[in-house]
Batch of 4 targets.
Target 1
Amino acid sequence: MILFFDENCPFCRRAVLFILNRDHNKGLFFAPLGGQTAEEKLAKWRKTHKNVDSLILIEGSEITYNSKALFRVCRHMGGWLKNFGFLAYLPSWLLFPFDMGYRLVASCRHRLCAVSIDEKRAPWNKQYKERFLP
């Protein structure tokens, strides 16, 4: 599983840190939306999904985004968050309210965290380095 995220967004970077600290299976890899991996894996898909610019998940051959991707990540993490995983399998019309909430947060995500994570002390530079793709 590869989770693509907005590397320029402090809120997104904190969300990645939250996920890293709870992903006990260590089966989730991360890649920036502006990186080489995203270019290679999402080029064709992005032609039909131009407005998706926050969270994209590749699980096998399936690509999900917005709340569905978030719920699938929850299922993967385990613990109490796993309980939200079943929501990823709801039909689109039932996911609509969750997608609206997700889009609302995504639209103001750059303003939600005023302070970014210090790059020199960021955990992805040290203990989680192998879980980040270019």
Target 2
Amino acid sequence: MSDKRLRSAPFGASLLPKADRDQLSDSNDYGAKFEGFFLQMVIPGLEHRVKEIVTKTLGSNWKVKSIGDNRTEFEVSKKGDTLSVKEAWDKTYDLRSGPGVVDAQPLFAVPIPSSDWNQESKQAVAGFQHKALDESSDVEWSLKQLRVLEAWSRFFPDPNLPPGHGIVIGLPDTGYQTD
């Protein structure tokens, strides 16, 4: 391709123009702290393959831990040294190109502002007057909205008998009795 904005990069690497990539600085502008990666493999039992991919892409000092019950998902972490947001995403693209990798995502911790946002929301809820909707007092409200009662009256004209009276539905996989 002759487009100068695209650079040769590993499969899945960012195809943003350089000016846009440069805006993704090495600083964590939102206070996001990189904690590791989530990695999902195509079939269960590939922990050895994950370790090979991680060692090749990130180095040998990363810990791979199987998570979940299906044995296809892994958490990749490292003590101490951390990556910037940009570095984490760049490494994520590299991990995604590994053989057998279905998905790779960076894991970030984002601090919650220390303001009293929770207190403010509690005050707003405390001032809210709970009032049940008129529809809540009528248990057949949804049936009326869907005109179910009208449909039942067409097929079950006797109002003294419940809808479906006299109809037997059976599933013959284990047998059934009519009495």
Target 3
Amino acid sequence: MSSPDGRTNGKHPRSSPPPGPAQRLARPRRAPPSWGWSPNRLTVLGLLLCALVAVLDVVVGHGGVLAGLLIVGPCCGVLTGRWCRTALLTTWAVVLVIVLAFAGGPWATATHLVFLAVVIVVGLVSTLSAAIAEWSLSRR
């Protein structure tokens, strides 16, 4: 029996039935945010940290080479759990390594090529890791 406040047998009626198995599977699963940070925030953090490293590298000049620290971008990308964002941050870091070579010294020196290779390898491994993590979450 229904009471005046709309309750049936003392319980509020459901506005819609609970989702069935097909509806639960249709929802895309995403990696939980790291430390409560959203993927957007982690992506912006990676972009800003790469830009900071690039500025510091230009300020330091020939006294030191900080281009290897640009791996911070792809590493922030892995924390998002999204391969596309990690690939974006990898591309940004590689572009910055190339730009820093023009700004700070001779192009295609052994040191520059090593740092470029390191950023590319770390970026590829990070992107692959994020892709595997995203794929495994989508299969659950």
Target 4
Amino acid sequence: MRGAPLKTAAPAETVGDGALNQADGSPADGLPGSDALASFARYDANLKELSVAEVERRRLRNPRDRTIYREVAHQFGVGEQSLRLWVKKKDAERLEVDAPPADQSDAPSQEQMQSELQALRRQIQKLRTENDVLKRAFVVFSSEWSREK
């Protein structure tokens, strides 16, 4: 078939979010009827919450179990790495909520710090004095013990 024009596929076009539409108008992921945003949200929020709650429940029951993520991911039909990321995100959110804001910290005032510093200095002086007494007592008792031999 010489001279017959070659049929070439129309080039893919880029749409607003960067996904490519094929020449036949189907989405870039190749699934009929799906849109580009569906590929980013593969799992619904309820499934995420249930699977993360199951991981947390099993971690409380047996923290040393290394198969939790694999088993829960299989149980809920989600990716193991996706589950790990969801749990990590949930843990980070929990830490942010539990941590006090920086402006409301319980930093001691200057007066409290000065009084604590004075108390610590008095305690150091007392301990040094006691240490000196013990050193002298050791010398006295060791010299008496060596004379008795």
